[in-house]
Design brief:
Elements lengths: L2 E7 L4 E3 L9 H11 L3 E5 H6 L9 E5 L11 E4 L2 H9 L5 E5 L1 H7 L5 E6 L9 E2 L8 E10 L2 E8 L16 H4 L1
Parallel strand pairs: 1-6, 1-7, 3-4, 3-6, 4-5
Antiparallel strand pairs: 2-8, 7-10, 9-10
The structure holds NADP nicotinamide-adenine-dinucleotide phosphate (NAP).
The site of NADP nicotinamide-adenine-dinucleotide phosphate has 28 residues, from strand 1, strand 2, strand 3, helix 2 and strand 6.
């Protein structure tokens, strides 16, 4: 199934500060949950730490780390190579959401087929983690959704040769059936 990047980004491309999200928007958290439920989520170890031992419910949680880890959660799987994610995705009936942070987005840049980006109406002071530059260069918007609170979600698809954009809708209604 598809490899989809999902991120919430401020006006300057910032996504994190001090190991955390630099904002708290319920509407975006709800949207993230709806969008990713029933699918696999791939995160870097620092993002896993930010979840404070609470795996994302109703999703397989893949955590990338070069270290070996033991986990007590059946839905959390540690992987030492990002290529394993690509192998697993090839065999999966669910989509694979790359949920960050910056190092992890960078690793999967060549493989992401779609981006789901929430534009956050803030400019965070002293942010320390940013989206990779030009990550949307080969993508075009094909849907926009207003979440309220000034949050705008844009759904992007990779532009194919000849400028054709493959359309898709961020329809999460069937997600649970894929779990
Ligand atoms: N706004 C958003 O949408 C959003 C989403 C997610 C996260 N964030 C924020 O982003 C920040 C964290 O991002 P980050 O870039 O610092 O870290 P990250 O991508 O979450 O995690 C980095 C870690 O992933 C592991 N890793 C990286 N490359 C690897 C590879 N090739 N093979 C195996 N493991 C690999 C390493 O873990 P080891 O050191 O254990 O080897 C590395 O330290 C936090 O502030 C978080 O809140 C924001």
């Amino acid at each position: 199934m598809a490899i989809v990047g999902i991120a919430a980004v401020d006006r300057n491309g910032a996504i994190g500060k001090d190991g955390k999200l630099p904002w708290h928007y319920k509407a975006d958290l709800r949207f993230f949950k709806e969008q990713t439920t029933g699918h696999s989520c791939v995160m870097g170890y620092r993002t896993w730490l930010s979840l404070r031992d609470v795996p994302l419910k109703d999703r397989l949680n893949f955590v990338l780390s070069r270290e070996t880890h033991v986990t007590r959660f059946p839905s959390v799987i540690f992987l030492t190579h990002h290529e394993s994610v690509l192998e697993l995705n090839d065999r999966s009936r669910a989509d694979t959401y790359i949920i960050g942070g910056a190092e992890t987005y960078r690793l999967f840049l060549p493989h992401v087929e779609r981006w789901v980006v929430t534009e956050v109406p803030l400019a965070i002071d002293n942010a320390d983690t940013f989206m990779p530059e030009n990550y949307l260069d080969e993508f075009a918007v094909n849907e926009t959704r207003d979440l309220g609170d000034g949050l705008l979600v844009k759904f992007y698809s990779r532009r194919h040769k000849g400028g054709v954009v493959q359309t898709w809708r961020g329809d999460a209604t069937q997600n649970l059936e894929r779990l």
